[in-house]
Structure formats: C-alpha cells, structure tokens
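#struct-help
A.M.: can someone run this one for me? Single chain, 305 residues.
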Amino acid sequence: MQTLRTPTERFTVVEGLDREPRTTTVTAPQAGAPDELTMAHLDEGPRDAPPVVLVHGEPTWSFLYRTMIDPLVDAGLRVVVPDLIGFGRSDKPTEIADHTYARHVAWTWALVEALGLDAMTWVGQDWGGLIGLRLLAAHPERFACFVAANTALPSGDQDLPEVWHAFRRTVNTADDLDIGRLVQAGTQRRLSEDERAAYDAPFPDEGYKAGPRAMPELVPYRPDHPAAEDNRRAWRRLTELDVPVVTAFSDGDPIMAGVDRIMQRAFPGAQGQPHTTIAGAGHFLQEDAGPELAAVVADAARRQA
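D.P.: on it. Structure tokens below:
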C-alpha cells in the first residue's frame, strides 16, 4: 500500500486548533502482512478522566471539533480527536481501492486499543457514526455512551436522499475536488477564507484525496453493496443493546433528517435519553453550533461517569 503524509508546513494556515497532535501506528486486515499506518489524533485533558472520542466524517478532519475541545476538557473529560486514515494529519493511502469500510472500522478500533480507551463516550458525526456504530455493536463493553450527531448506519435496504446521491456524483466526477467548498455546502454559516483553507490544508493536490474520493462509494446505498450485510448485522445487534444512545441532530441537514427518530425507536439504549435537536445548524453542526453540541456531549458523559 502506497501512502502519503501531508507536509507539516501545510498546517501553518490552520487557526483555532493550536494543539500538538499525537500519532499512533494502526493496522487493518488485508491479504499478506498488514500495512502499518500512522494515525494522528489529539489527546487533551487528564488521562484518568472519562474519555470522550470525537470522530469526524467526510471530508473533514479534527479541525471540525476545534470549538468543542476546551468546553469538554473544562467539564473534566479526556478528549480524544482522531483524524481518520486518509484525512487530516494521518497517513493517506493513495489508491481509492485501499479504502474499504471494514478497514476504516479496523484502523479506528486499532487506535482505541492502542490508547486503552474504556468506558468511553463516542461522538460520531457522518462517517464518525458509520464507523462508531459498527464498533459499538462489536464492542459494547467498551462504551459508556454513544452520541449520534447527524449520522446513520445504512444497509442499502432503503434508498438514500437524492441530495446524498448528488454529493456522491460530485465526488466521483469532479476533476478537482474542492474540499473547502464541500464543507461550506454542509454548513449554515459562511466559513471564513482561513477556515476553508484549513479544510483544504491536508490535501496539497489530487494525489492526497483518495480518502475523500473513496468514502461515498463505501456507504451501502444499495442492498447488494459489499458492506450492506455487515451493517445489517450491526443494526440487529444495536437493537439488543442497552448502552445509552443520545441523538443530537441538527434541524438543517437534508441528508440525515429523520434518522434520529428511527434510532430513538429502534435502540433500547435510546429509550428515555435527553435527545436534542440543535436549531440553525447544517450537516456539519460542529461548525454551526459547536458549543451547543459540546454541552450535550458533556451532559451525556457526566450521566455515565
């Protein structure tokens, strides 16, 4: 597997995330000897505090959570914010085929294992939830709580909204994938030039973008998708678990609208939880309402401490 790592100087344009990243070596199953990749992450707050894991999605990175870290640390929590493989400061496999749903699940779990995280509150938005819900189904004993924020666990048995298919077509056909523009399309407020530059920073050229290019096709959007059965199996398991699940969806996400209500009905752990709808926010609700989401997460974590 060939990989690239974004030069450090690319991140000098990033403002609002003045934190030193840590790195961990992760592997995922594949034919032959597994490749060792470097996964970057932030790790803030006391190491013996209850851990909160904030996981981004497509096509963002840990910069997305910059306004949430301090409030959560101030609430007495340990805050871990990974960059998924292919994103942010993490290694970037150069071939689209190097990215599979199963590998992203395995890479992310390898980080959890390496850091020894237990009794964790997981915050999953977009792919952070697609990965996190699979991990919750497989390792419920390691979770104290799951906060689902504008995310889902599709199996391909129900069609996805046309706006998502339009996004998939854009990613598949764009000659030059404009990451900052994609993030702007998913927010209600206008991003500054510096903020858009920060989202572009991990990707110096098209050769670094196999991760963002790959992710839409990894979502099970048809019943015979390669990842569909794994997600069906995970969904069935989630309908048996009593691990607390709190939904914190925005009111302005056309892709995920209504999925929160499905989770609230289907998951035993979601019964009686303080679910929230955050007003005035889009798909990337961390950008539009980071402090509000942080308050929901802190409350959820404290309830389980």
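A.M.: thanks! The mean pLDDT is 95.
D.P.: also worth noting: Residues 285-304 form the longest helix (20 residues).
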